[in-house]
Amino acid sequence: MATTTVANTKLTVDEQYDQTGDHLVDAEDWKRLSIAQKQEYSVRSLAESCSQLEITKDRIKLYFDYLTYLYH
Asked: Model confidence over 13-30: pLDDT tens digits?
């Protein structure tokens, strides 16, 4: 009987939302994400990269708008 092992690796936010297999979220990935996924990515990415920063709704909105502008 074969056994299955689970790797103890933690995926980064980019790896979790990557749609193209390059382990990064870029313009091509952004096009493929739903609005809900884009919003989730924005929250999680901001939180992962700015652990010392208070994550407010205004900051999330600004970051989401920035990513949308950048990847559009």
From this structure: 999 999 999 999 999 999
